[in-house]
């Protein structure tokens, strides 16, 4: 299969707000995550400053799944497992596996 389906390949621009790697997502971007909760910023309803998430070229959570070894297959991070069982650490801005 061609690389089109390889989700792990870095994307030079955010698929939603189209900022380049290293730049903060614009307001209302679908992909940006809340730096306090690790969840989607757009749907964050907490009364706090969600911070300025930076587009890294990868989907939020993808590198965490790789680090934790939570992959369904090559290039297929188990994001469901990450968001349901891991704990967001706002200090390191990483997901930690529950011990
Ligand atoms: Zn974006
Ligand atoms: Zn938030």
Q: How many separate structural domains?
A: 2
Q: How much strand?
A: 5-15%
Q: What are the distinct ligands in this entry?
A: zinc ion
Q: What is the mean pLDDT? A: 91
- The strands making up the biggest β-sheet line up spatially as 1-2
Low-confidence stretches: none
Broad shape: globular
Assign the structural class, choosing from mainly alpha, mainly beta, alpha/beta, alpha+beta, or little secondary structure.
Answer: little secondary structure
H/E topology pattern = HEEHEE
| N-C termini distance | 37 Å
Q: What count of helical segments does DSSP give? A: 2
Largest sheet: 2 strands, antiparallel
**Approximate helicity band:** 10-25%
Query: What is the CA-atom radius of gyration, in angstroms?
Result: 14 Å
Please tell me about this protein's structure.
- The chain is mostly loops and 99 residues long.
- The chain has two domains: 12-57, no CATH class; 58-89, no CATH class.
- The protein is 14% helix and 11% strand.
- The protein is built from two helices and four strands.
- A two-stranded antiparallel ribbon has the order 1-2.
- The longest helix has 7 residues, at 62-68.
- The termini are far apart.
- The model has no long low-confidence stretch (mean pLDDT 91).
- Bound molecules: zinc ion (2 copies).
Summarize the structure.
The chain is built from two helices and four strands. By secondary structure, the protein is low in regular secondary structure. It has a two-stranded antiparallel sheet with strand order 1-2.
